[in-house]
Amino acid sequence: MVDLLLGLQWGDEGKGKIVDVLTQDYDIIARFQGGPNAGHTLEFDGIKHVLHTIPSGIFHKNAINIVGNGVVIDPVIFKKELDNLEKFNIDITSKLFISRKAHLILPTHRLLDAASETSKGKAKIGSTLKGIGPTYMDKTGRNGMRVGDLEFDDWKDKYRSLADKHEGMIDYYNVDIQYDLKELEEEFCEGIEVLKKLTFIDSEQYIFDAMSQGKKILAEGAQGSLLDIDFGTYPFVTSSNTTAAGACTGLGVAPGKIGRVLGIFKAYATRVGSGPFPTELFDNDGKTMGRVGNEFGATTGRPRRCGWLDLVALKYAVQINGVTDLMMMKADVLSGFEKIKVCTAYKYNGEEINHLPYNIEQDKVKPVYTALKGWSKNLTKMTKADELPPALNDYIDFLEKELEVPIKIVSVGPDRLQTIRR
Ligand code: GDP
Ligand code: IMO
Ligand code: MG
């Protein structure tokens, strides 16, 4: 069986940390969608690591890490990630496998991303500008380049014709984008040479065989459910299916082979980039969350917008994904708030509703809050569930009742060890 770990909000829930914590129980960790728009942070032994493409199980000796067919890979960023890992003596060729069917992000994909965003002006998505949208467009448009193409001598011809086409498209946008393609291509080719040293596999077959041998597999999601191309706050979304079904297509796993679905959420909410966020705070509470939670994007460094937990949106994510176990992250950040607010309904067109309407723009949707008592205790040194303050337990009980799914992990700090199992 394959278990899934998925972000239930707008990304950055703490997926990297939890995958790292859970890897000891798994034989294989596999990414199934997204690309280097992701920034997954893990911390142990006083060192912080940020991964973009490489699965978050890479620091454990027991596990194989797979970059699945649904992922898009930028060889330039991938090389940098590998360079950062060098000092940790990880046997990359035997621990990290890449699907031949994963698509490649070309330098011109990144430029197209920038051109598209610039042309949108105020309506921009707030993309990470890693070329994600244009690469998935080429994938579904059946023009893309895949990792497996690199095993054939004509890959440079394929590259050239696609890059030439992209240059025409960049001109079409008619925006001021400065670039030196020769320089970008040199960097790209260096990345390709590094990528080619890795082990390419037919990951669907590898995973099928591993399952037949009873191996335990964890699929690591990127982004979050509200950034899903179909079910997120379109068009302010990413270009892949971040929800449970994405693991089936992104790894080639049959739906009946999906085991537990682990849904991860912050005790409050954040969003980076543009798009609706009904519970966003513009007051001191929001600023406190940002400061205490150190809410800056792991990929772009942009400050994350902060707000109270949105249960309407969270319920929707639990439902779409079929979540079986919940994990609540960053509970420590809420210590010191006199009241903890939770959005339990929306006011929409003069009515109170409990579902996500088609359009959740701020001026159309007003959150209805339930206020719970806060707690003042510092949680960061706690290691056991029975140490948690009563007001936090009340918050957890309230959420479990509303979501009808148990909260199995409460995270109280960024380190591996700051993880409480219930
Ligand atoms: P991901 O994209 O879902 O892997 O999450 P990110 O790494 O982008 O963002 C999560 C941030 O919160 C990282 O800086 C983590 O180190 C940090 N973090 C994770 N869990 C906790 C927690 O329980 N408490 C605090 N204070 N920080 C956490
Ligand atoms: P992890 O895996 C948070 C957001 C961007 C932008 C939108 C589209 O670390 O949770 P894209 O680059 O995909 O074209 O951007 O999605 N976004 C993320 N926000 N965490 C992420 O990944 C994100 N990946 C993309 O900010 O709003
Ligand atoms: Mg992140």
Observed structural traits:
422 residues, binds magnesium ion, 12 helices, single chain, alpha/beta, binds guanosine-5'-diphosphate, 4-stranded mixed sheet, globular, 32% helix, binds 6-O-phosphoryl inosine monophosphate, 10-stranded mixed sheet
Folded structure, characterized:
The chain has 422 residues and is an alpha/beta fold. The chain is 32% helix and 22% strand. The strands form 5 sheets. The chain has a 10-stranded mixed sheet with strand order 9-7-5-2-10-1-11-15-19-20, with helices on both faces. Strand 3 and strand 4 form a beta hairpin. Helix 2 packs across helix 7 and helix 4 packs parallel to helix 6. The longest helix has 19 residues. The structure holds guanosine-5'-diphosphate (GDP), 6-O-phosphoryl inosine monophosphate and magnesium ion. Guanosine-5'-diphosphate (GDP) binds next to helix 1 and strand 3.
Mean pLDDT: 97
> Helical region count?
12
The strands making up the biggest β-sheet line up spatially as: 9-7-5-2-10-1-11-15-19-20
The number of distinct β-strands equals 20
**Low-pLDDT segments, ≥5 res:** none
What is the SS-derived class? alpha/beta
Radius of gyration: 21 Å
Bound molecules: guanosine-5'-diphosphate, 6-O-phosphoryl inosine monophosphate, magnesium ion
- Please outline the major beta sheet: 10 strands, mixed
Strand content: 15-25%
Task: Please write out the topology.
Elements: E1 2-7, H1 15-22, E2 28-31, E3 40-44, E4 47-51, E5 64-67, E6 72-73, H2 75-85, H3 92-95, E7 96-99, E8 103-104, H4 107-120, H5 132-140, H6 155-173, H7 181-196, E9 199-201, H8 203-212, E10 217-220, H9 244-251, E11 258-266, E12 269-271, H10 284-292, E13 305-307, E14 309-310, H11 311-321, E15 325-329, E16 339-348, E17 351-353, E18 365-373, H12 390-403, E19 407-411, E20 419-421
Parallel strand pairs: 1-10, 1-11, 2-5, 2-10, 5-7, 6-8, 7-9, 11-15, 14-16, 15-19
Antiparallel strand pairs: 3-4, 12-13, 16-17, 16-18, 19-20
6-O-phosphoryl inosine monophosphate (IMO) binds at residues 7, 10-12, 37-40, 125-128, 130, 132-133, 222-224, 227, 236, 238, 272-273, 298.
